[in-house]
Amino acid sequence: MPKIYEYFGFIFFFFSNEHEPIHVHVTKSGQQTVFELILMDGDLVEIRSRAEAGYEPLGEKDAKTAEDFIRAYYKNIVEKWMNFFVLKKRVRCTQITKKVK
């Protein structure tokens, strides 16, 4: 389970046995939501969120914060996904200490 980002109490991660579409799991305070990145020609066109089985989903405000982060860092998330799942490389967790808008 590679953790890819820490962001003001949010943890963004992949499971080791993931599937497409590219997606990231986000947890905060025991709540968890999955965000799917819908890409067209390498550009982010949509983010779809869904509840993770067995977890209470992120609250509305936290889900919005997570989605804003994903919009700002989607290229990096895709790169980490490709490195881990396609190229079989280790990915490191990055701690982000500057708020995204």
Order of helices and strands: EEEEEHE
Q: Number of folding domains?
A: 1
> Based on the structure, what is the oligomeric state of the protein chains?
single chain
Mean pLDDT: 94
| Main sheet strand line-up | 5-4-3-2-1-6
For the termini, the CA-CA separation is: 28 Å
Q: Tell me the major beta sheet.
A: 6 strands, mixed
Shape: globular
Report on this structure.
The structure is a single chain. The chain is an alpha+beta fold and 101 residues long. The chain has one domain. Helix content is 27%, strand content 37%. The chain has one helix and six strands. Strands 5-4-3-2-1-6 form a six-stranded mixed β-sheet, covered by helices on one side. It is globular. The mean pLDDT is 94.
Question: Helix and strand layout, with pairings?
Answer:
Layout: E1 3-7, E2 10-13, E3 23-28, E4 31-40, E5 43-51, H1 60-86, E6 94-96
Parallel strand pairs: 1-6
Antiparallel strand pairs: 1-2, 2-3, 3-4, 4-5
